[in-house]
Amino acid sequence: MSAFTVLPAIDVREGRVVRLHQGDYARETRYPVEPLAAARRYAEAGAQWLHLVDLDAARAGGYGLAALVESIKACTPLKVQTGGGVRRAADVQAILDAGADRVVVGSLAVREPQRVIEWATAHGAERLTVALDTRRDADGQWRLPVAGWTERSELTLAELLGIYSTAGIRHLLCTDIDRDGTLAGPNLSLYREVLALAPRLRLQASGGIRDVADIQAACEAGCAGAVLGKALLEGRFELADALALEVPAC
Questions:
Q1: What is the DSSP letter of 244?
Q2: Tens of pLDDT along 14-30?
Q3: Fewer CB within 10 Å, N side or C side of the chain?
Q4: Does 249 reside within a domain?
Q5: Does this entry carry the keyword rRNA-binding (predicted)?
Q6: Residue 148, pLDDT score
């Protein structure tokens, strides 16, 4: 089994490092660190991967962090997984040309899964991460809001997992929106449900992680990695302690 991967996250809005509470753009916390400086800090702590999100583009389209990706790749040894506003094949190519190792596709992965599958075929399954951000509706179904979580899709999480799990997609990032930015702990039952439906996918847990114990729990639930945002930015634990969990035993 491949090693569990810890991915420190940097969400960028208007050039600043921010975190949103439950995906709400009106409930934003800004942090006094520049994106490149944050990436350097994570690299110095021993991170191998960085998860980078363009929040402006997530709503409006038009990924705008290519120059930042180039700087991160020039200044650090980090592998970069990044997305936000990826709508066209040209967006995917531009992000890869900037040096990114994986392109994260969110809204379009919900709206047009066949196109995303075609991109994975063209570039290789290792170069793409499908991001399915989800919220449970009153009817008990896991739904998939899009466009920076501002619009609702009628497709369910289970329906899309069925499509992607048989199409050769390798990497899946799944966020429980109601846990995102809350430090309430990850939704382990959601991740177990996802893996029961799509056991071949390498699942990255995202949303709510507050300490190293949560990372260990995600690992034990079968996740292949965890994205760490607010807890790291607020110093809830040391990145080095999280990275010590990157062992095949998970």
A1: T
A2: 999 999 888 788 899 99
A3: N
A4: no
A5: no
A6: 63
Q: Which CATH number belongs to the domain containing residue 26 in this structure?
A: 3.20.20.70
Q: What is the mean pLDDT of residues 52-56?
A: 96
Percent of the chain topping pLDDT 70: 95
Q: Return all residues near 103 (Cβ < 8 A) that are at least 6 apart.
A: 81, 82, 83, 86, 91, 92, 95, 96, 119, 123, 127, 128, 129
Q: Which of the residues 11, 54, 91, 214 is marked catalytic?
A: 11
pLDDT value for 24? 84
124 located within any domain = yes
Tokens of residue 11, six digits: 């969400």
Annotation says 11 is catalytic? yes
Structural domain containing residue 26? 5-243
Q: How much is the pLDDT for 1?
A: 47
20 falls within a domain: yes
Q: Which of 54, 56, 101, 133 is catalytic?
A: 133
Domain assignment present for 211: yes
Residue type at position 202: R
**Dist. CA 7–CA 224, nearest whole Å:** 11
Q: Establish whether 133 is a catalytic residue.
A: yes
